[in-house]
Amino acid sequence: MATAPRPRTTTRDPEELGRLLTAWLAARLPGAKATNVSVPESNGMSSETLLFDIEHPEPPLAACALRLAADPSAYTIFPVYDMERQHRVMSLVGEHTELPVPRVQWLELDPGPLGAPFFVMERKDGRVPPDVMPYTYEGNWLHSASDAERAHLEEASITLLAKLHDQFPAEEAELLAEPGDGSPLRKHVEAQRTYYEWVVRDVARSPLIETAFERLEELWPAEEGEAVLNWGDARIGNIIYDGFEPAAVLDWEMASLAPREVDLGWTVYLHRFFQDLTVSFGQAGLPDFLRRDRIEARYGELTGHTPRNMDFYTLYAALRHAVVMLRVAYRQVHFGETTVPDDPKDVDKLILHHASLAAMVQGSYWD
């Protein structure tokens, strides 16, 4: 774990991107220059980020972050990157809620300037809990924090989710409804099935993922509850913190219309993913941080909505993450970073958390 290379995420040249960005900016804001262009170490596994400053007498933003749609030649994680949708969601969340969403500025839908659509937003300073190595692993700022500091960060982060679900107008969230028939939850799950079929097109399928879809049907909630705006990738690794207070909420590409528990299940499980991984490498991790029971209880206190059917929703989160992880693994195969097992029955081993997903399917994970 300590020596595993980060999977390749792009084939783009950062220096060339910087030159192209400067040319685009000068056309958009005459006399402006893009300076201090850099790529953050924690650049995402799906879309990419550039950081830069604007040199201009009256810049609309001084410190900027640019979110660029995925490199089409880098075996993309998702089939579609709708930058206009992300730009609009962030604008609306900033307008209707108290969440610290970075102010979005320019939206460029023409792929010509940088090779793909992108938007520019304000850049916020602070710290992000790392994914590689994960924050549950020793040697990073969050792991080194005191119990009280982590408790403060946990409380503030759950509060963000509660405010998003309570404050964002339901009618505005309709723009994120998935196509098709049925309830918002049914359409959300069917969209994940479609995504899975895209991931395994022309490659080996995953028996475990398909079994997990079957188990979802057996656990389907009798009462799905109201649908609200879901952040989508609701986890602390997508928050910039000033100290232990949220300063910016990032990464809205997975935003959707779904029951509250879809976001909650993702928050619970994505922490458990890192915690389980850390324990498997012989460390204690952070067993008392972001515990499922505490997340559910505090969310209920903040919103008056008691989370329901969380075994279903945490399984759904682990299933969704498995589809993403399978795509990441096949991208590593594409770039020669790993190989597909010879035995088709071992394909599930490409999924980093296959053991915990299997335990959830069997109903033994939370025992």
Record keyword descriptors for this entry.
single chain; 367 residues; alpha+beta; five-stranded antiparallel β-sheet; two-stranded antiparallel ribbon; 9 strands; 42% helix; disordered N terminus
Explain what the structure shows.
The chain contains 11 helices and 9 strands. The chain is globular and about 60 Å long. The chain has 367 residues and is of the alpha+beta class. It is 42% helix and 13% strand. Helix 4 (147-167) crosses helix 9 (292-303) and helix 7 packs antiparallel against helix 10 (310-334).
Helicity, in percent? 40-55%
Backbone structural class: alpha+beta
Biggest sheet: strands side by side, in what order?
Answer: 1-2-3-5-4
Please report the distance between the alpha carbons of the first and last residues: 27 Å
Number of helices: 11
Describe the global form.
globular
Radius of gyration, Cα only, in angstroms?
20 Å
Instruction: Report strand %.
Output: 5-15%
Helix and strand element order = HEEEHEEHHHHHEEEEHHHH
Number of strands: 9
Mean pLDDT comes to 92
Largest sheet composition? 5 strands, antiparallel
Poorly predicted runs:
1-8
Element layout with pairings:
Elements: H1 14-28, E1 33-38, E2 48-55, E3 63-68, H2 83-96, E4 104-108, E5 118-122, H3 141-144, H4 147-167, H5 170-173, H6 184-199, H7 207-218, E6 227-230, E7 239-242, E8 245-249, E9 256-259, H8 260-280, H9 292-303, H10 310-334, H11 354-362
Antiparallel strand pairs: 1-2, 2-3, 3-5, 4-5, 6-9, 7-8
